[in-house]
Amino acid sequence: MDEASPKSVWRHVSAYRTNLCELYYSKPVSHWVLLFLSSMGMLVAFPASSLLSRIYFANGGKSKWVVSWISVAGWPLVAIVLIPLYFFLKVFPTRLDLKLTSSYVVLGFLTSADNLMYAYAYAYLPASTAALLASTSLVFSALFGYLLVKNTMNLSIINSIVIITAAMTIIALDSSSDRYGYITDRQYVVGFVWDILGSALHGLIFALSEIVFVKLLGKRSFLVVLEQQLMVSLFGFIFTTTGLVVSEDFHGMKSEATTFKGGESAYYSVVIWGIITFQLGVLGATAVVFLSSTVMAGVLNAVRVPITGIAAVILFHDPMSGFKILSLIITFWGFGSYIYGSYSPAVS
């Protein structure tokens, strides 16, 4: 028995190494370069955009619609990159039929709703808490990936779902230790609930995006990533702008800028950098779904949790109780279980 155990471990290590080598050589180098850049886009831009949302609310911003609008207002940036590529590569845009257009409209609407939910979360919760709760998107990515895309579901993945759910329960039970003084009980609950619902919707958007790539666009070239991002952001922008105008928050942006802590220049800096980072983050996520899968996008979306949490503690002096640290450790355990369940090779 003592000799069998090391052999078994070595067999697993060898199987992993073989599996990784086969995976690497099955794709061109350009694939891995794009995947690396897309992953960095998620891991850098998403935390930055989350922190900018918290900066907006912490310094006098009040409109959830403004934060939602910032999330999709960067769609022209994608167009600036995409249109010259058509001429440079001498290719034509993907033809828009009724089914594809309807998919873009639905994804645009869901994206605008998702952004609004997260806006409520960052308005009422510390950035570190909001980021931890957002890690539940990994759970929903697994569930929707299994139900809609037919991704695998095994005991390790189910174990990770239970673990991450337990971590979120710990945060809920310790809500009194990390609440801002000016936030009421009702507002904290609203932020908590909308954060979980936004994470669920985020997981659904990942799964639906993968379906669009596989069944409607096809994985022809990286251009379809830019096309989907452009169209989804454009429709999301239309829906969000409508809400911004109807709520009259659009007209309130000018007066909000004058009362913003740091002045108008600080206000518009937050808005502009928010637009850029949100667009880069979502573009990175869409590219990861295209180049890899909903699983990979869900994992990276969850990995950004500690990055956002640590940055929030350093920059905003967010409260970090023992229960929140415990929740973070348990969440890491859940990540590890999920990754193992998703990528472990079968060893005979």
Automatic annotation (TrEMBL):
The keyword Repeat does not apply. Its main location: membrane. It comes from the Eukaryota. Keywords: Membrane, Transmembrane, Transmembrane helix, Transport. It holds the Pfam family PUNUT. GO terms for molecular function: purine nucleobase transmembrane transporter activity; purine nucleoside transmembrane transporter activity; transmembrane transporter activity. It is found in: Membrane. It is a multi-pass membrane protein. InterPro entries: EmrE-like (IPR037185), PUP_plant (IPR030182). GO terms for cellular component: membrane. The chain crosses the membrane at residues 32-53, 65-89, 130-149, 155-176, 188-208, 228-246, 267-291, 297-316, 323-343. Belongs to the purine permeases (TC 2.A.7.14) family. This is Probable purine permease.
